[in-house]
Specification:
This protein has helices at residues 22-52, 59-103, 123-137, and strands at residues 8-11, 14-17. It is built from 3 helices and 2 strands. By secondary structure, it is mainly alpha-helical. Helices cover 66% and strands 6% of the residues. Helix 1 packs antiparallel against helix 2 (59-103). The chain has one domain. A hairpin with a 2-residue loop joins strand 1 (8-11) and strand 2 (14-17). A two-stranded antiparallel sheet has the order 1-2. The chain starts with 7 loop residues before the first strand and ends with a helix.
């Protein structure tokens, strides 16, 4: 674990922080996993309806299919959730940290976000404000 409770993952030569806003990311994952659970329960209910009312004979195959679908859904939700929330919370975390450093008087360099990050449109005006602030401090 990195400082502040963030989990670091090695990716080649780069360190990648997976959890940057615990509240946002865990809330998103809880909602997503709840949705997966409801979808799976609905699938199981449909399986029992098929067996009892529609007289489908091979219920075990249907159950295995629902179970495999549930496992796949959970896995993709967790992975997708971390990737999506990282693209949302990551830029906000970096911008917040950068702003705190600038407010403490530390010299701030121009920022940039990753290619697929959200909120990239705020970096240009922020960097302009940062440049104006540097001019005022000089």
């Amino acid at each position: 674990m990195a400082s502040g409770g963030r989990v670091k993952k090695k990716k080649g030569m780069l360190n990648r922080t997976l959890i940057v806003n615990k509240k946002l990311q865990l809330t998103f994952l809880v909602y997503s996993l709840t949705l997966c659970l409801w979808i799976s329960v609905a699938g199981m209910v449909l399986q029992f309806i098929a067996r009892d009312y529609l007289k489908v004979e091979d219920v075990s195959s249907a159950f295995i299919l629902v179970f495999v679908g549930f496992v796949f859904l959970i896995g993709t939700t967790v992975v997708g959730g971390f990737l999506l929330t990282n693209r949302i919370a990551g830029p906000l975390f970096r911008l917040s940290s950068h702003m705190k450093n600038v407010a403490e008087g530390k010299p701030g360099e121009a920022m940039s976000f990753r290619k697929n990050d959200y909120f990239v449109e705020i970096i240009e005006p922020y960097n302009k404000i940062l440049s104006e602030l540097k001019n005022l401090r000089s």
